[in-house]
Design brief:
single chain, alpha/beta, binds 2-phosphoglycolic acid, eight-stranded parallel barrel, 12 helices
């Protein structure tokens, strides 16, 4: 973490878990467990129908909330879609884009990820842009090449001052939901490389302002070591964000210097 130049963020990704009626008790429990001093931006990215319930439950707290995806389109005849304007109207601060599950199960392309990033920035929502290699790519030593491509594609055409507002989440696909975490060294190597890509596309000032998160089986036990790395500015937490004590422990992990 480097608090001087950028924000530390711990964002929960509930994926397709929990019910709208479960939001209140979860948030109440989380609020009671969070450290008294704010050391990071704490956010919950939840399924669309749960957003209003989370929004109500976190009122007057320092927790923010977001969505997990957004439509490619602005408005109109797109049955089942949810656009960026709706998310901003609900008060979302963040929206995850390009999660590997969307890329894998819904065929989301890098150019679609880029369109979504633009749509979100246009309405003032911070995109949490997910990038990450497969096990096969890692084994073939193609990780850094692939990450370079994904980051460049996601940020294409974004103004430097808007890039500073973006968040990148490095999520190696082989570590997501598998209990297999990247080592702190592996995660730092890629997060540092992501910052170098941004430096190359823009400049050092922009690169040092972008928060880069690690995601992939981050939990209450391994968070401290990951968060101690200089280029890891927080976490995108799946499984461990479903249990308030675990999630609160990860938030507390950002108190270290
Ligand atoms: P995980 O998920 O923490 O359950 O591995 C992270 C993510 O997919 O964002």
């Amino acid at each position: 973490m480097n608090r001087k130049y950028r924000k530390t963020i711990i964002a929960g990704n509930w994926k397709m878990n929990k019910l709208p009626s479960e939001a209140r008790s979860f948030v109440d429990e989380l609020r009671s467990l969070l450290p008294k001093t704010k050391t990071c931006d704490t956010a919950l990215c939840v399924p669309y129908p749960i957003i209003p319930n989370v929004a109500r439950a976190i009122k007057d707290s320092r927790i923010s909330f977001g969505a997990q995806d957004v439509s490619l389109h602005d408005s109109g005849a797109y049955t089942g879609e949810v656009n960026a304007a709706m998310l901003t109207d609900l008060g979302c601060r963040y929206c995850i884009v390009g999660h590997s599950e969307r890329r894998q199960y819904h065929g989301e392309t890098d150019s679609e990820v880029n369109t979504k990033v633009h749509n979100l920035l246009n309405v003032g929502i911070i995109p949490i842009i997910c990038v990450g290699e497969s096990l096969e790519q890692r084994e073939k030593e193609l990780t850094l090449e692939y990450i370079d491509y994904q980051v460049k594609a996601a940020l294409a055409g974004v103004e430097p001052k808007e890039v500073k507002r973006c968040v990148i989440a490095y999520e190696p696909i082989w570590a997501i939901g598998t209990g297999k975490t990247a080592t702190a060294e592996q995660a730092e190597e890629v997060c540092c490389a992501i910052r170098a890509v941004i430096r190359g596309m823009f400049d050092a000032r922009v690169a040092r302002s972008v928060s880069i998160l690690y995601g992939g089986s981050m939990n209450a036990k391994n968070c401290d070591e990951l968060l101690a790395q200089p280029d890891i500015d927080g976490g995108l937490i799946g499984g461990a964000s479903l249990k308030a004590p675990d999630f609160a422990r990860i938030v507390a992990g950002t108190a270290q210097e």
